[in-house]
């Protein structure tokens, strides 16, 4: 890795004329050498435009919505992590670069030249030296041409742009990017854009993302039967956090006495001028229902993930490490064009599978234990989420088979309830009941109330641009894509017969909700005991892939 930063080049030794000539030359080279042989199935600019139009329809009158880019994050010294755009900004624009902000207006706004606009996009400007080091930038003309925007400006125009935000009844925005520092030479990086935004809407200095998130959760879940618990939770935060103590809405919450008070506070949250609640409602309502274009990418991400599961089943051996198995999955993903994983790959052999989000993957030999593999490919921004649990030696033991059958039956019980209009909670209850009754029958727990000891997580979540994607509905709707993922995890030293210790099973599949049922998108990877054992017995294209031993491993350090 080359160490030199573009910003640290000592340009003072170059005359302004030479610098200008070099910059123009670099821009010309970078512009003319456009990438070739790119994938042909990216989301279209028409898709992103349609999402902005859909958002506009949900916005209240006389409102404007701000969507900021995600911040860059440092991986090591002067090297950043691979940049991953804020999914909401990507959803509305297709733009993959940092240091930008999108404005969507409910109504058309007058421009100085007599024209009108209903959206503004401020993006990072072209910079020849930076592009030589960190990659091509679209720039204003590129965003106009490739993403279909008309009113696009460099981000340094945001500060002085002639737009009076005080005239808008509602300013809608999501959680503001956190952990920003003003350390770059850019005059309009994300730090500056957020600071300028806060000033433009006169956001209080003590604004808190967590507070406004809590208010949104309160709006969606609070009811009089659980009001005492809710009030106590806010009082606890008021005692330790000044921003809660000083907030008018929080003070109204802790003084709620009846249903009328509750309705009044909820309405105040919905009507707030600086409104993060509406941002979550609008983006959640849109993103929970997938369009045909999105489904095409999700289908591919899920199929790629299943192919990874299949090849690993066929090639897995006791002498393999968790890291090697992770690498095999992710090689298959990239072989089929998936740019990233949707989340850290979970490869848990034996008791490691009992750790729900185990991502160390450091066991050097998986042995003959059960192997839990929770791995999802991300294809063009859309993530799958598929889990298979397999016996490395090819056959489930009687105890493993008993636990696996329970989880499988719980998943089947949930599948039967999936359709448009069904309640999320009903599928969860059905799966949990199967597991609870089964664990009692096996003697692992004494009564059903103990089930959460071995089944500690929920059944389902949306997938999409986030692996735990946005959604606001309490009922299932046609066009949703969700996971169904029951599991049982029995760590050593659990208060049950030792023969169950170390067994962990999760089966996770991705389902598209339809009018009268569902489509199992992840059917490419077997999930039954018979199907898994049959797949393990097959040969893999990776079976004869051999690498030489490390010579350095045999040498002593001193």
UniProtKB/TrEMBL annotation:
What are the GO BP annotations of this UniProt entry?
proteolysis
- The domain of life is Bacteria
Cofactor(s) it depends on = Mn(2+)
Q: What class of enzyme is it?
A: hydrolase
- Please give the InterPro entries that the UniProt record associates with this protein: Aminopep_P_N, Creatin/AminoP/Spt16_N, Creatinase/aminopeptidase-like, Pept_M24, Pept_M24_MAP, Peptidase_M24B_aminopep-P_CS, X-Pro_dipept-like
Q: Which SMART domains match?
A: AMP_N
Record carries keyword Hydrolase: yes
Q: Which residues form the Aminopeptidase P N-terminal domain?
A: 43-182
Catalytic reaction equation(s): Release of any N-terminal amino acid, including proline, that is linked to proline, even from a dipeptide or tripeptide
- Output the Gene Ontology terms for molecular function: manganese ion binding; metalloaminopeptidase activity
**EC annotation from Swiss-Prot or TrEMBL:** 3.4.11.9
The answer to whether keyword Hydrolase applies is yes
Q: Which UniProt keywords apply?
A: Aminopeptidase, Hydrolase, Manganese, Metal-binding, Metalloprotease, Protease
Q: Which family does it belong to?
A: Belongs to the peptidase M24B family.
Please give the name of this protein. Answer: Xaa-Pro aminopeptidase
- List the source organism: Flavisolibacter ginsengisoli DSM 18119
């Amino acid at each position: 890795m080359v160490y030199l930063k573009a910003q640290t080049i000592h340009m003072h030794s170059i005359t302004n004329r030479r610098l200008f000539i070099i910059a123009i030359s670099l821009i010309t080279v970078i512009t003319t050498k456009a990438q070739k042989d790119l994938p042909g199935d990216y989301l279209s600019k028409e898709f992103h435009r349609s999402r902005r139009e859909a958002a506009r329809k949900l916005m209240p009158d006389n409102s404007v919505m701000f969507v900021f880019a995600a911040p860059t994050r440092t991986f090591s010294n002067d090297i950043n992590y691979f940049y991953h755009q804020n999914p909401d900004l990507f959803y509305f624009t297709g733009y993959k670069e940092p240091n930008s902000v999108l404005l969507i207006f409910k109504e058309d706004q007058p421009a100085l030249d007599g024209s009108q606009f209903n959206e503004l996009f401020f993006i990072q400007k072209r910079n020849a030296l930076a592009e030589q080091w960190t990659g091509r930038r679209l720039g204003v003309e590129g965003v106009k041409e490739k993403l279909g925007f008309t009113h696009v400006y460099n981000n340094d125009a945001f500060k002085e742009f002639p737009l009076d935000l005080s005239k808008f009844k509602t300013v809608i925005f999501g959680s503001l990017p956190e952990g920003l520092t003003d350390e770059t030479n850019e005059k309009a990086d994300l730090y500056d854009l957020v600071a300028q935004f806060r000033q433009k809407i006169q956001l209080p200095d003590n604004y808190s993302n967590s507070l406004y998130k809590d208010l949104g959760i309160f709006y969606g879940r609070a009811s009089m039967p659980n009001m005492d618990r809710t009030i106590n939770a806010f009082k606890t935060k008021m005692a330790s956090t000044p921003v809660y103590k000083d907030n008018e809405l929080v003070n109204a919450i802790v003084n709620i006495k009846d249903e009328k008070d509750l309705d009044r506070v909820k309405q105040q949250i919905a009507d707030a001028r600086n409104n993060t609640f509406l941002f979550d409602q609008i983006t959640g309502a849109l993103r929970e229902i997938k369009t045909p274009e999105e489904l095409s990418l999700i289908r591919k991400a899920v199929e790629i993930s299943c192919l990874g599961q299949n090849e690993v089943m066929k090639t897995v051996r006791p002498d393999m490490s968790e890291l090697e198995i992770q690498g095999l999955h992710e090689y298959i993903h990239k072989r089929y064009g998936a740019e990233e994983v949707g989340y850290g790959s979970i490869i848990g052999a034996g008791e490691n599978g009992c750790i729900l989000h185990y991502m160390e993957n450091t066991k050097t030999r998986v042995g003959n234990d059960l192997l839990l593999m929770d791995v999802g490919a991300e294809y063009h921004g859309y993530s799958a989420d598929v889990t298979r649990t397999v016996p490395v030696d090819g056959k489930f033991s009687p105890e493993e088979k008993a636990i696996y059958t329970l989880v499988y039956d719980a998943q089947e019980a949930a599948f039967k309830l999936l359709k448009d209009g069904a309640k999320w909670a009903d599928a969860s209850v059905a799966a949990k009941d199967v597991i609870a009754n089964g664990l009692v029958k096996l003697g692992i727990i004494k009564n059903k109330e103990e089930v959460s000891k071995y089944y500690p997580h929920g059944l389902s979540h949306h997938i999409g641009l986030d692996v735990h994607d946005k959604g606001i509905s309490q009922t299932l709707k046609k066009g949703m894509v969700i996971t169904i993922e029951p599991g049982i995890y029995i760590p050593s030293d659990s208060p049950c017969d030792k023969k169950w210790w170390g067994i962990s099973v999760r089966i996770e599949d991705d389902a598209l909700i339809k009018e009268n049922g569902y489509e199992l998108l992840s059917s490419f990877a077997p999930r039954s005991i018979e199907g898994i054992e049959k797949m393990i017995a097959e040969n893999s294209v990776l079976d004869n892939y051999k690498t030489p031993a490390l010579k350095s491993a045999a040498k002593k350090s001193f």
